[in-house]
């Protein structure tokens, strides 16, 4: 059997060719080596098209050094590239098309609106969706505010809590709203009160340039005043089967309406946060079990509807009654949340599982069809 090779596909951050997750890749290369999987890192910019080779970034655990080597295009690819507005991203799109025949462990998913509509088609998932609509005019906003005391406005392709506006009807004051949020550059906009007509114009301006959703706000304010949610990671394992890797709680920065770590939030153990939030260990365990089943079924469903996935992180909002809502799904999740919550074992697992899955793919591709295992 040939030596399995996995290429981690990423994008340079800048012209100095820096990488964002180099320590994650180093760890994956080391773990890959232990499993007999040859792992290297490359970007579309490093591909020599006519030679079908890449000028790869390789890491040698013995010397602890990174270097460059010409390598054949890898048969399997773990795509870590997130959507961005840049020439580098355009080059990535061309790479994905041209090398479509290679085995990508994961393919790009769709925007938040398409995902929402896809989940909505099934009663199984519909019960876990906050009411959401595409923001097209002030009528949409009024409609949402008629049914919900809190509404979130967010871009369909946003990441890292960018461009998120929280609108809350002020209790006891008809026609007055509290607004608070984070601009596209993540700067916090301080809370302020506006009238309905002011709100209309704020939201209209907020939504210029890209498409936004208006979404029912789930009450997630902790007694400390901070907002929180949960990040759940499900991954395919070494048998090609979806499995829960772990779940962590995220608590937002003070004055922040989002709980993203990059917006100043911090990570905590999910069990502990949920126990406090729901009031008992028993309820927390029950809700986590329900969340696990939901996450696994959601990942399998999205893979069926679109194309290959090897992992999915779900941002879950859980209200005080223990009702679970899917806020969004992330096909290229960071693992940092587990490191930051002190859940080192889950962090390790999150890096190893895609490698074990790649080995499973490799074995199954090489094995004659009759000997392939099928698992439920
Ligand atoms: N409907 C909602 N109700 C309550 N809080 C929400 C809602 N939507 C978003 N939030 C808060 O804002 C955060 C960011 O929202 P969301 O995950 O949809 O956007 P994102 O910018 O894509 O985040 P990511 O960094 O995960 O890519 C959530 O983690 C949550 O804290
Ligand atoms: Mg999110």
Automatic annotation (TrEMBL):
<protein>
    <submittedName>
        <fullName>YheC/YheD family protein</fullName>
    </submittedName>
</protein>
<dbReference type="InterPro" id="IPR026838">
    <property type="entry name" value="YheC/D"/>
</dbReference>
<dbReference type="Pfam" id="PF14398">
    <property type="entry name" value="ATPgrasp_YheCD"/>
</dbReference>
